[in-house]
Every structure is written in C-alpha cells, then in structure tokens.
Amino acid sequence: MDAQNRAASRSNRTAAYINKQINTPWTEESILEWQKLRKQTLKQPAISRENACDYKWRNIYVCLPIPANSYSYAEENDYRDVEIFFTAHRGRRQVSESAARLTELMKIPLLKEHFKSAGWAISFPESVLMLTPPVFNNIYKGALGEVCGAYIFKNLLGINLFELDVHEFELFDFKTADGIYVDFKLWSDQIGIVAKEQIEKIRSKIEKTSASRVYIVNILASENTQFKPIISKDGKIIEVPFLCKNSDINGEAINFIGKEFCR
Q1: What is the 8-class DSSP label of residue 163?
Q2: How far from chain centre, in Å, is Cα 96?
Q3: Strand ranges inside 120-249, DSSP E
C-alpha cells in the first residue's frame, strides 16, 4: 500500500506540473523543456533498470514493487486525483504498451523503422519504472500521435509540418508554410467523431492562430472502420477518421488528404 500511495503522490505532482505548464504563457525556454520531456517519454516510456533512468527524469515515473509491463490506475478531475494499483483490477485503466496503442503502431513497417532509427521505444519491457498516468496519457500518447502523423505526412504526402510559434504553441500540433494547421489524435474508434463542444474550441483556436483551415487527423482505426471524413460547411475544419488501418497506412486516407491540401 505504501508503494501505491507514493506512486499516487508522484502522479498527482506530475499532473500539477502539466496543468501549470499548459496554463502559463509559453516562453522559448519552457517550450524547449516541454519538448525534451516529450522526447524522453518516447525514448523511455518504461525502464527495466533504475540506473538506466537519468536522475533528471526520475519524477515522471512510477516505481513498481516488482518488474512488470503494466500497472492499473483510476483517475478523477482530469488526472489531478489518481489512485495506483499494482495488482490486477478489472475495469481500471492501464499504463501499458497496448493502452498506448504502441503494439498496433509498431505493426506498421514504416513507423517501426522510423522509431528504431529515432531511438524511440518499440515495446514496453518488464520494467521497474513506468510513466505516471498523467504523463502517459497527456504527454506520451500525444507525442506518439504527433511523430507518427508528421512522419506519414512528410514521407507519403510530401507535406512538411512545422512547430508552432511561441504565441500559439500547443493550440494545435503543427502548421504548414501556407497557414494550414494540423492536430493529430490517437483516438479509439469510440471517439472517432469530434464532439460539438470540441468543434467550438477548435473554432476559437482558429481565430487565435488565423488558420486558413485545420485538419483533425486520427492515426489509427480498427479493421471494420469506414473512411468517412467530415468537412465543415465553411471548409475550415476537416476531420480525418484515420491514417492507418489493418497494420498499414491507408491509401484512401492518403489520397483524400493529398487532394484536400491542393484545394
């Protein structure tokens, strides 16, 4: 129980850090630290030996009492209040390779080779350190979607994506030289359509960035998901239901995005 309480306390501290970062105006220095954190999660979402973890990053990990490749948790208040469980709890959420959908992503040869070349984790080993739930859910999973989407856009569509400027950082993921903004998602099929309240938030962000249009692009879909993109009436918001399906990059999605970007 003490180990679980210590893990929960560390998790809540990381949640406080994340909330502070995203609610404080960004600076070049804070953006750099944020990007370093994202790279660290991609490189080591789970660590098999404590001495393989740079001390600087120790606080973003939960220490497991015995090596494992997953643990369970429950959360409330947008991860501000987390309980950790090191024994199996049915119905709880997990920090694991499958929960991150890394297993599915690494079945796509192009992405697996990219991750290997970049030095990012392609699996979760049995580990004594694993990311806290807030870092896992809010940073690692987001980073997975971003790096996969950006790589596909560049290599299969010839679309170069750029980081956002300081004043607009984290409003979306990337932008093009022509003022088109892109947000990548790693959603489950159950969240395949952007909710009305999210559309309103996207429109608010469009005003802040002066985006000509925004693509909301989900990375993965299950086998039976149909490709049904949604374009808003004014043509400013384009929802792409997936880029990848059945362990491959989807040709229909690539063709749709390629044509849309040319209009």
Answers
A1: P
A2: 14
A3: 127-131, 174-175, 180-185, 213-218, 220-221, 230-231, 237-240, 244-245, 248-249
pLDDT for position 224: 85
| pLDDT value for 90 | 64
- Does residue 225 contact residue 188 with C-beta atoms inside 8 Å? no
pLDDT at 163: 96
CB 141 within 8 A of CB 186: yes
Question: Which of the residues in the chain have pLDDT under 70?
Answer: 1, 90-91, 189-195
Axis-axis angle for helices 141-157, 28-43 (nearest 10): 90
Task: Give pTM, 2 decimals.
Answer: 0.94
Alpha-carbon distances, residue 27 vs 2, 22, 56, 202, 210 (angstroms): 38, 11, 21, 23, 20
Q: How many helices (H) and strands (E) does the chain have?
A: 8, 14
Strand partners, 181: 175, 214
213 and 180 Cβ atoms separated by less than 8 Å: yes
What pLDDT shows up at residue 194?
A: 66
